[in-house]
Request: fold
Amino acid sequence: MQRANTIAKNSSVHPYDISPEFVEWLTNEKAEAIRHQRRIFKATVMIAFAIILFLLKEQSEWVAGLLDLNAYAAG
Reply:
């Protein structure tokens, strides 16, 4: 990380010194990282949804109790 910061601060390294192949590779890697983050987010949402469904199925009395509390609070 320090080396990258040193290179960025060094005036002898210019953006035009970077090869087009590296720029293409870096662009592809950034796009792949974004896709990977989206896949992780989707998986996390699916797991959370599965946990909620499991709790609704296994703890139906608890859910009914919550609904009764909401009815009392509304009335």
